[in-house]
User: Which sequence fits this backbone?
């Protein structure tokens, strides 16, 4: 029963994703999502209170995947510099998954500008990654692999660089090899972070 | 006569800017822009072939201001590392000017996704800054102030970091002091770039 519930949720998500991408968030109604997903309105509202909730769940799913990959990498690498390098290598697959969602991303930002609930949801991943990488950098400093920089500022630099690369990778996919650029950009920042006096 | 022409263009730009911000690009018509600017349709079309042209001119104006500041800084500083530090200091005023245009920025990205002409206009500043800073870094390497890094990759890192910071400064203006973050982020990258063996 639980499995069937999850299947229904996924069907709704996939259908909504497709319709948002094709027609935009505003032009997509719950009725259309239900029709495309092959579910009743009752089933829809059993799983999601609103169209906005589906929209937010779609973004959360994508972020949950990224976070899972990051956590796994952190467990499997020997120190912080190596973990950061490994995470930079994951950029290619992150961009690819994001590419499918490009118009959703855009809609997300536009809706965030108009709607405080979506704004909060749009901002929270940046704040999350800000603490996540500050924590990692703090750990690296304590363990002696990183210089005693300000962890919050260094994290902000990593997060901002990644966001800027993601934006460009989405808008100008053929402009350059964004996976290589990400690897080299993170490496350049690591050059400024890694402790050399030991 | 030329001065009056410029005044008219500015009035049209300002009125359009205000209406785009308030009601969105799609919902704003040439007739409304003319009414708000106090110009006739004839005068409008004398200066701009279309609503899109006004939209693009608005973005170009903002970029021209930024570029003017950058060029002046480059002339007035003794070497490339100092020029880059000085440019980072300009971030505060750039963000402030961009803040007024936040919704225009957003509209710009959304329209770029839909319209190839606007896409080209949206991408070209990134490509411009990419060459601009690669050239500067190349100069710094030749003059011996920077390490022999790949200028294109280093430039991409600077541009991407700046774009990511701008995005966050616009969407989360009270999240942190973005001017300080920009200064520290650029300084961190410079730490990885500056030549130390001399």
Assistant:
């Amino acid at each position: 029963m639980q499995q069937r519930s999850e299947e229904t949720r996924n069907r709704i998500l996939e259908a909504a994703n497709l319709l948002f991408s094709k027609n935009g968030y505003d032009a997509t109604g719950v009725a259309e999502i239900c029709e495309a997903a092959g579910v009743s309105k009752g089933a829809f509202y059993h799983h999601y209170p609103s169209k906005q909730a589906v929209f937010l769940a779609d973004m959360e799913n994508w972020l949950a995947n990224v976070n899972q990959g990051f956590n796994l990498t952190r467990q499997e690498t020997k120190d912080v510099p190596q973990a950061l390098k490994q995470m930079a290598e994951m950029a290619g697959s992150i961009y690819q998954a994001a590419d499918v969602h490009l118009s959703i991303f855009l809609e997300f930002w536009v809706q965030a500008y108009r709607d405080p609930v979506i704004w909060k949801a749009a901002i929270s991943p940046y704040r999350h990654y800000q603490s996540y990488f500050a924590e990692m950098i703090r750990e690296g400093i304590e363990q002696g692999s990183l210089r005693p920089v300000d962890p919050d500022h260094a994290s902000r630099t990593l997060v901002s660089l990644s966001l800027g690369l993601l934006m460009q990778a989405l808008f100008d996919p053929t402009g350059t090899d964004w996976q290589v650029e990400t690897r080299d950009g993170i490496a350049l920042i690591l050059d400024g972070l890694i402790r050399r006096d030991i």
